[in-house]
Amino acid sequence: MLLLLLAFEWNLDWKHLGSPASWASERYCVRKIDGAGGHSSDFGLLGVPWCKSKIPVEWSKSELLFGLYDFLPVYATRPVQQNQWGTRLDHSFGLWFLARRLQPEIIIESGVHRGHSTWILRQAMPNASIITLSPEHPRSHESEGPFYVDAKAFYFTEENFTDFASMDWDQVLGDVVRHRFRVDKAKALVFFDDHQSHLKRVQQAQQAGFKHLVFDDNYDTGSGDEYSLRQICDQLTTGGGHSCSLSSREAEVRSQRKRAWERAVDMTELCSMSGAWWGIRGEMRDNFDKIKVPISHQDHIENYKLVQSMLQIYWEVPPLASPSLSYQRAYDPARTVAPLLGEEEREVYNRLGLDKLDEWEFSEYFQMAYARLK
């Protein structure tokens, strides 16, 4: 298997995974009217909005593949085997890979649910100090099935819950880690899986002194329950922006794909009656969709400028496999970065044992994003 990966690495020409450099220059990037194949050529055909990085990520596709080879046996031993409505294979690997690559001594989780992501982080970083913030303790989800409680983690849950923004991080880290002089918040990793506005969380993290952020639910424009980084960076530039015309080529392609992909977004979902497409039909959503604030297009542009002024790196974890391999029909590849394994890598896919997994393992992909702040 390692020889196969090495041979595959020899033929790689993909230095910066997810880079939009090779995409068409047409604003919507609609290269063809192609409905439901799920082939590698589908990826990004409706454009992929992209927050601009100041520097490229330090890892390559080959490093991701070798990481996947190491990760899959670990993933097979997870205590929460079916993490319904939670992190599944694509995002579990992304979180594990980023934690291993960044090597943080301190990890903060905002949003825990049944504890699956805590377990993933513990496998990646056995000796890290993990701090979890969640209104509910993992054990409160016992009726849903198995859960995981980390014996070494520090839980701020239930009556002890405090929101990320309200924590006195200097005091907490000093008390928890017990070596205040060694605590470096700039090297900590913060994982947000709490369905709060990413704009809000980026600002709060920067003010607190954190730099390495991971966002689980990075919803595409017109979908989700929070104002995501992906929505913020969907601007009238290459790979982004929309006209809302029902007679446009984009509308035609979206209509076709809506019939084939469960979470595809057509023009009636993308645009409000007044033609507002940014965010979710012209609204900035927050707190599990409980807060809906109308914003103007100029507000949306200013939010983008603010985020870009704080970002050093933005990188979306790629889907692990093309739908022609995984057979998933949930997320639409037309708005997604290229997969780690395309249909031409079927042999690698099979050798890794991915063909033995159920298709639902590949269905909860929501553009997990790594953001490094300046």
Automatic annotation (TrEMBL):
Keywords: Signal. It comes from the Eukaryota. Residues 1-18 form the signal peptide. InterPro entries: SAM-dependent_MTases_sf (IPR029063). The keyword Signal applies. This is Uncharacterized protein.
